[in-house]
Amino acid sequence: MYETIAFYLFSALTIGLFLITVMSKNVLYAMTSLAAGMVLISGFFFILGADFLGVVQLIVYVGAIMALYSFAMMFFDATRDIKERNTNSALVFALGGLSALVLVLMFAAPIYSENIKALYPMHESIGNAQDVGIVLFTKYLVPFEVAAVMLLVAMIAGIILAGKKMDQSLTEDLSADDEILTTKDAK
Amino acid sequence: MIGLEHYLIVSAILFSIGLVGVLRRRNLLMLFFATEVMLNAVNIAFAAISHYYNDLTGQMFAFFIIAIAASEVAVGLGILIVLYKKYGSLDLDDLASMKG
Amino acid sequence: MENILSILVFFPAVAGLLGFVVDKKSARAYGITVAAIEFLLSLWLWFSFDSANAGMQFVEMIPLIPDFGVSYYLGVDGISLFIVIMATLMTLIGMMSMSIKENVKNMIVTLLFLEMTMVGVFVALDAIIFYLFWELSLVPMLYIVGAWGGPLRVYAAIKFFLYTFAGSLIMLVGLLFMAYVYHNLTGVWSFAITDWYAMVLPVNYQLWLFAAFFIGFAIKVPMFPFHTWLPYAHGQAPTIGSVILAAVLLKMGTYGFVRFSLPMFPDASVMAITPIAFISIIMIIYTAMVAYAQKDIKQVIAYSSVSHMGIIMLGLFAMNAEGISGSVFQMLAHGIVSGALFMLVGMIYDRMHTKEMSKFGGIAAVMPKYAVIFGIMTMASVGLPLTMGFVGEFLVLLGFYEISPIMTILAGTSIILGAVYMLSVLKKTFFGPITNEAVKKLKDLTPLETWSLVPLVLIVIWLGVYPKPVLEPIDNSVKAMLTFMHEKAITPEAKEIIKVPQTIMEVK
Amino acid sequence: MMETLVYIALFAPFAGSLFAALFGMGKRQVFVGIVASALLFISFVASVMLAIYVVKTGTPIHVMMMEWINAGDIRIPFGFVVDQVSVTMMVVVTLVSTVVHIYSIGYMDHDKSFNRFFSYLSAFVFSMLVLVMSDNFLGLFIGWEGVGVCSWLLVGFWYHKPDQPREVNPSISPSWAANEAFIMNRIADLGMLIGIFIIYWNTGTLQYDEVFAQLPYLPQWILDAAAIALFIGAMGKSAQFPLHTWLTDAMEGPTPVSALIHAATMVTAGVFLVIRANPLFAMTPEVSFFIAALGTFVAFFAASMALVNRDLKRIIAFSTLSQLGYMFAAAGLGAYWIALFHLAAHAFFKALLFLGAGNVMHAMHDELDIFKMGGLKKVMKWTYLYMGIASLALAGIPPFAGFFSKDAIIETAFNEGTYVLWIILVVTAGMTAFYSFRQVFLTFWGDERYKQYGIHPHEMYKFVLVAMSPLAVLAIIAGFFQPWFHEFITTLLPDYEMSHHTHELILVLTAIVLAFAVGGIALAYKMYAKGLKRDPKVENSFIYRLLANQYYIPQLYEEMISKPYAMISEALWQKVDLKIVDATVDTIAKFFYYTGDGVRKMQTGNLSNYLNWMAVGGVALLVVAALSAVIG
User: Fold this and answer.
1) Of the residues A10, A43, A78, which one is the last residue of a structural domain?
2) Is there a contact between D156 and C431 if contact means CB atoms under 8 Å apart?
3) What pLDDT, on a 0 to 100 scale, did the predictor assign at position C219?
4) A84 and B29: CB-CB below 8 Å?
5) Contact (CB<8Å) B71/A154
6) Among A95, A109, C268, C419, fewest CB within 10 Å belongs to which?
């Protein structure tokens, strides 16, 4: 019963928040609602019994990724409304709607999958985190390690990319401003 | 009772919202947000399937997706900063240098 | 020398790679040496070839991808042996008479790679290896036409490449489907042609597969109406390119028919007799007429090639040993004769820098040696008895007469129309008074040119008078193939039409 | 021993040809001609020895040199047979060739391509011997094509001469005439090849004796088809209507060539083929009758054109055509031995006639118009004598050779009850006498018209005249060998005897033919012996112009065949090959090119657009997946 209520509540809220993310002109609003949506999604995970995943969602998404976004926004002018040329929106919404419709129809249809057998069944006796840990460090060890390397690479890449001319402030250093202005003029 | 379909439908709706965002927005940062929405929508589907089939594989995939999302954001934001330094804008319409 | 075939295939390629480090000045001598060694190797192959054995000889087999039955599988029989020898011979002769002055080293390297692919196509017994060499052969030819050709060379080269490439892609689908069918029937994968021979296919499969292979081969032959790349390619290619193209590359198409279409799809082949004969007759008559209308001497030879390929196609579908053996023999004859004719045209082009027949006239008086050799080759081209051209043409027409007398009469007009356009070339080029001042200053063949042509003249006459050494191995393999096609055929019509030679029956 | 002789007879001319070819590009060497002639004489001697052997023993000599084509079930060897028929041909061919070779040493005296000429001429003799000696149809075909090529080479010997309009030179140019001859022969050769195919597929062999042994077991229509196809081949080589135009044009070649190839030997190959394949033709009476009828027609047709022609060589060429018609008439009526006899006799006197004409030409500096000659008998006594003998023989005046052979043919026509043919042949005999003597009188009698053209004729070299004497002797006496020849040849060929009825009338019949012949000569004498009297009214009459222009047949061929062929060829190339076939290919290529070019505009460089397109594609795929799930 609680589960049902929680599901509908979370569903309504995430849809609403993500709509704000997508539609909002203000980056700050968009980001805030995105972060809130992420939290609610972790709620879904908890309902579904994927405790560990929910925690990771909270830490990584809400903690790390959102923090990254907010730091990134400091580089850009986040207070200004974004001016975009959001043309041909009819097509966009039609496509979005169509894809939603098709997907919903597909998922709403009865799924014939009685013969799907669990490769790595869950164990009720032990906790989800332990379960995940066992599978992750046995069957998915190599992908896990690869993912770790990938994250390291991504981190270095991010530092290198963003770190160029880090000594020059984009907002305060006049020479940097000039640089930007000249490139803009050049266009 | 909430079934698998419910979760999948929510996932589909969220995915479509993300898609609309991807298609509609011209600001690269907003595109990133929309991408996050899509990734999360898929994660819900994975977690739900994992739950209803009593199989951890789904969670594993969701887990890796989160890892990929994290690295994507790290690299992506780095690129955005470089772009912004170079062009002073994150609007896709200003970045059309690959015209064929 | 157990790996003689591998040596034959890869020796030119290795030598070609080494050719990159050879000094520019000695590149030509290097190339001729390599080609000569290769030719001697192929002669050695013939020498140690067992004429009485109709099956594959010098077989080499190394599994490459065992899971999918792909293996490095080579072998020759009577049908392919002589085409290989002709390929090496024409490469050698072509190099000897080559008149290119620019980028000689690159040309030599390209030619050596081309030689590898040509030999490879004819000795491959695995469909994938066959396809590999088949496609690879396009690349050197693309370079030769595109880099050393005439003013329209890029258009001609691209047309040649894309046209034949499109055809062979369809053939690739056929090859893959064939392997798939083989897998379905036997449960194992195999791309070995000899394995495919053993497979009896339902007629509708045969028809589809025949069609797929047909497009690939027909464009290469080239059959009407897929022939239009040929005049451009010949028109623009340098002499050496035309020689190799006419002598060897076109034979890949007809060889494909003998190697794949006929033995693998006997019923479909029998059903295809009428349409193919129809196309062949169009090729023979139509291109002979078009050849007559040409102003450019090289185009005449190019179109005459198409006309002669029509004869070869007709013979292949005669479904008796006379026709098919004659057809294979005619492949050799056409290779040598048209190769020689292209060389001759190239020699006059080097002197006059034009190929327009109206600029010539009366050359016989100033270049008697040239005129004699050209005359002999013309006569071989029109199928005069005691030249190589006659043996093949006669056997082809004789063989096809059994299938359809009317069509044979139509195809036989080739001997009239061939004489019409070739003699008009002779008349316009060699006879009559000298009208062009430039002709008066022409010099007759240099010793090098003479000595690269004389062997061809000797071969043309030798094999016209005594074709047995070549015809016998061809005939043995063809007879074996026919016997086996006859056994394999499903439909009674096919069984009736595919004629097992009496001599084979007697042995049994 | 006899085998060696066969090879000597066959290969001596070949050796001569190769020897001459060695010096082919060099300057004139008299010894080349002498060696070639000597080798031919050796061949002649060997042929005579073989003939004596065959006469004595009556058994043919059969040699198998080597295998040629073995493929499938077909086995074709190089095999040669020397029997009564082939030995007759061998003797005739080598004899005439030897004379012509020696003659050519004199005739080609001033030609710079002297050596080349002998090479070709000997090669021709070799091919002709292969033709007559072969023991199978394909061997015959080798010789058949070989003589064709040699004829092509020799007709076009003076290849450097330019093309002229038909009004100036009816043969246009030597190279044109050579090509015409070769191509026309090729048309016939196709028929011959088809005949060979028919024979092979129905008998499984091409050896004469094996084929003939199987003929009785074949259905009639196959026999008919084979006979027709072979006869088409014969029509080309023997220049029968409608493939006759090349023969007169072939007179562009040097005169010895005309004598040897286009009178004595090659053109009789068609007759030889019919005689050789007599078992086949004997079993196909309808085809044989057609041959006889066509032969008779050509005899008359050609003679009619000879009546008004002004060209010395062309008149003789037409008479050759006409005499070939006689031979075919005899062969078609079943009198094979008579045909062969006429062939041999004709070879002697016609070669003599041509060589005589060559002397005149040599004397007149290549002038051939008989209207510009006259009175030559004073300066060219021997030539006049030779040509007179030959013309008498041609006209069928006893006791010359032509009388015996031709009269026998005419009698045969009567004997068979084909009175229409008989009448035509008799009339033609009169015409023959007329045009031969018209030519003799215009050339050798009357006023000396050549003087006004500033020509100083002179007699030919002595050795040439001596060399011609054997032919003259034979033209006189050959007829007396008829009974002996009859006995000899009918051991192989079917005998042909006149019926009792004909036998009774034989004097009357002979008298009629003679009356026509003498009448023809008398008419010629009356009209031309006193000199040339030209009557513009006659010369402008329709019939005269029709005959002088060879019934406009060459023009007809030009307009109806050559020109349309060239036009269609041009159209096929320009309109069909370039505009339709190639253009279709290019259109397909252009379709892809322009599609690519058009789609290139999608590449806006704007990521948003790309995303839109990607989404469209993704959604489309989704829809397809959904639909296929629903349908499947």
Assistant:
1) A78
2) yes
3) 92
4) no
5) yes
6) A109
Strand ranges, E, within D191-350: none
For residue A26, the domain's CATH number is 1.20.120.1200
Q: What is d(CA D322, CA D296) in angstroms, rounded to the nearest whole number?
A: 8
- Does residue A31 sit within a domain? yes
pLDDT (average), residues B35-58: 88
The stretch D455-462 carries a mean pLDDT of 82
pLDDT at D539: 81
| Residue contacts between A and B (CB atoms, under 8 Å) | 244
pLDDT of residue D232: 92
| Whole-angstrom distance, CA of residue C180 vs CA of residue C189 | 7
Structural contact between residues A31 and A70, judged by C-beta atoms closer than 8 angstroms: yes
- Which residue ranges make up each domain of chain C? 1-224, 272-466
Does pLDDT of A170 surpass 60? no
Give chain C's residues under pLDDT 50: 505-508
In a domain, B34, yes or no: yes
Q: Which of C27, C1, C2 is nearest to C15 (CA)?
A: C27
Q: Chain D partners of B92 at a C-beta cutoff of 8 Å? A: 606-608
A85 located within any domain: no
pLDDT digits (tens, 9 = 90+) for D237-289: 888 888 888 888 888 888 888 888 888 888 899 999 999 999 999 999 999 99
B77 within a domain of the structure (yes/no)? yes
- Are residues D394 and D350 in contact, defined by beta-carbon separation less than 8 angstroms? yes
d(Cα C414, Cα C412) in Å, to the nearest integer?
A: 5
Q: D207 by DSSP, 3-state: which?
A: strand
Distance between the two ends of chain D, CA-based, in angstroms?
90
Can you give the residue range of the structural domain that contains B59? 4-95
Contacts of B95 in chain D (CB under 8 A): 606-607
Q: CB C367: neighbour CB atoms within 10 A?
A: 21
Nearest CB among D600, D608, D615 relative to B26 is that of: D608
Q: What is the pLDDT of residue C257?
A: 93
| DSSP string computed for C52-110 | T--S-EEEEEEEEEGGGTEEEEEEE-HHHHHHHHHHHHHHHHHHHT----SSHHHHHHH
pLDDT at C507: 46
CATH code (residue B37): 1.10.287.3510
Q: Note the ipTM here.
A: 0.79
Minimal CA–CA distance to D257: which of D174, D162, D187? Answer: D174
- Using a threshold of 3 CB pairs under 8 A, tell whether chains C and B touch: no
Taking CB atoms and an 8 Å limit, are D608 and B100 in contact across chains?
A: no
- Percent of chain D topping pLDDT 90: 32
pLDDT value of residue B31 = 87
Tell me if chain D has a CB within 8 Å of the CB of B98: yes
Q: State the smallest CA–CA distance between residue D424 and chain C in angstroms.
A: 34
- pLDDT given for residue D126 in this prediction: 93
Lowest-pLDDT range, A112-121, C30-39, D137-146?
A: A112-121
**Contacts with B26 from chain D: Cβ below 8 Å:** 608
Q: Does residue B100 sit within a domain?
A: no
Q: Which domain holds residue A157?
A: 127-168
In tens, the pLDDT along B57-100 reads: 888 889 899 999 989 888 888 888 888 887 777 777 777 776 65
Per residue in D366-379, pLDDT (tens digit) is 888 888 887 788 88
CA distances from C237 to C244, C253, C302 (A): 10, 20, 11
Residue of C nearest to D141 (CA): C385
Predicted confidence at residue A177, as pLDDT, reads: 55
Q: For chain C, what's the residue count?
A: 508
Q: Distance from CA of residue D317 to its chain's centroid?
A: 11
A155 in contact with B, Cβ within 8 Å: yes
Number of domains composing chain A: 2
Subunits next to B (3 or more Cβ pairs <8 Å) are A, D
Which pLDDT value is given to residue D159?
87
Helices (H) then strands (E): counts for chain A:
8, 0
